[in-house]
Write a structure and sequence with these properties.
The structure is a homodimer of 181-residue chains.
Chain A: H1 5-23, H2 28-31, H3 42-55, H4 58-67, H5 81-85, H6 90-111, E1 121-124, E2 128-131, H7 132-156
Antiparallel strand pairs in A: 1-2
């Protein structure tokens, strides 16, 4: 059972507000700490979500519609979030993420994709053949993987404070760290 | 580095709004499906959060302050969420969770706990000795473990739709399932 486009878009519409409600005006002790060297803070994750709105989703749908399998997507730059976060506050990033998402959902609507369009195939530089349908579902799942990650990063900050309860808190035992975003 | 009471309370104040923004008015295909037999849907998780507001947090702080290590907490009933969800809509559950959380944070404030109170020890029926400080941090971490879980349950609904991208989505590989809530 795959989510319908309508259901995918509903989720994409909700997640920026959820991340905003979670993080805005929360103390820095929650939002600016990470899980150790070469890991991201919640602040960095929001920068990454912005970067993906610019480069990963609508541009890749357009790429498939234009090139099909003849040319692979450009590779995603995993360090791109640093461009987005430099000199910004978390509040500014949350505003920017919400603005871009709204804009991109508007573009997706005007594309007026038909059922046969979801089967159109493109070429991912490392995953090989993917469809427009895969891409749109991944857009939504990507929000979820980063909400999952933000929850885990924040829980990491109180891993010692919870004492013996650590054993019962699944988030403290999560190995679902993304190989790549 | 343990979160201060102020930081813990800030998170406890934010999470009901985040879960509300994520789930309210989202299609049932996201909120009512689970991860298979004997697992919870996001709807069930909100019921569990309500149940915990009633039985797990403030009542256990009061229990420690009253009995110390002389009497263990009453065991938590993992099926208690069914009492909370029966005949309710998700919107009603989200309202109820927000209302109870606000009320409980008010009670916590009026307790006016002092630094030495966080070291006071109680007895968990299976974990043994725990402190008031452990309990309060666990309250916050418990919100995070269930936000982590909700993200994972929802991602599970599109595990096939994402196609080859499943490999890159950490949430699809999470083993951080709570042994007990």
């Amino acid at each position: 059972m795959n989510p319908s486009l309508e259901d995918t878009m509903a989720l994409l519409d909700h997640t920026p507000a959820a991340i905003n409600a979670l993080l805005r005006d929360l103390p820095d002790s929650w939002t600016s700490r990470n899980e150790g060297e070469n890991t991201w803070s919640p602040f960095d994750v929001v920068g990454h979500l912005i970067d993906c709105e610019h480069t990963n989703w609508i541009p890749r749908v357009e790429w498939i519609l234009q090139y099909g399998e003849t040319q692979p997507f450009r590779r995603f730059d995993r360090g791109g979030h640093a461009r987005e976060t430099a000199g910004k506050t978390l509040g500014q990033l949350l505003d920017e993420f919400a603005r871009l998402r709204l804009q991109n959902l508007g573009i997706l609507s005007t594309m007026n994709l038909q059922p046969e369009d979801f089967e159109r195939r493109g070429l991912h530089p490392s995953l090989g053949v993917v469809t427009v349908g895969n891409l749109l579902s991944t857009w939504a799942a990507h929000d979820l993987t980063h909400l999952h990650q933000i929850s885990r990063i924040m829980a990491y900050q109180c891993r010692e404070a919870v004492g013996p309860w650590q054993r019962f808190l699944g988030v403290m035992h999560c190995t679902g760290h993304s190989e790549q975003a």
